[in-house]
Each structure stands twice: as structure tokens, then as C-alpha cells.
């Protein structure tokens, strides 16, 4: 005699049949608000590029004047300092890495 009762045959129902046909109002409002925000973002993007602010953000400089020339010279000096400091940091890191690797050589395999 079997200790387990006989299993009823499995009936697969259509999962879409239980899906509500009406979409909740909150979801509808959310979709509408999202599409409005997308349109506003697109309009803002177009306005930014109309005024030329988009070009300055990606790196092109405005026409140079005497004050902007001084600023760019200071910036170049500052950039050079950061470049040199970065290369020094990289060299120190590589030296430390190689030194650490040499100090922890794996033992030779047993014979």
C-alpha cells in the first residue's frame, strides 16, 4: 500500500485569464507623468544646446580674453602638478607591488 495519496492530475490554466483587464488609475497617472517628464527633459536639452551651453560642458572653451587666458595658464600649471603627482603615485605603487611580490615568493614544490 502506498503511503502517499494519489496525486490529482495537474491542470495548467492560462495565466493571462487571471490578469485584470483594467489597469489601475495610479499606474495610468504614473505613465502619463513619466511621458510628460520625458518631453520636458527633451525640451530642456534642446534649449541648452540652442544657447551653446552644451558645447562648454564637453570641453570647448569660450573665446579667450585677458582674464580667461590667465585662468587657463593657472589651470595648465595645476594640471601639470597633478599629472606629475599622479605619475609619482603610480611609480610608488608599482615599486611596492613588485617588492611585495618578491618578498612572498611561493615555496618550491616538494620532491
Mind describing the biggest β-sheet? Answer: none
What is the global morphology?
Answer: flat
Query: Helical proportion?
Result: 55-70%
Structural class determined from secondary elements: mainly alpha
Count of separate structural domains: 2
Uncertain regions spanning at least 5 consecutive residues: none
What letter string, H or E per element, gives the SSE order? HHH
Report the C-alpha radius of gyration, rounded: 34 Å
* Number of distinct beta strands: 0
Transmembrane segments: 80-100
InterPro entries: TOM20_imprt_rcpt
Membrane topology: Single-pass membrane protein
Main location: mitochondrion
Compact description:
The protein has 111 residues and is mainly α. The chain is built from 3 helices and no strands. The chain crosses the membrane at residues 80-100.
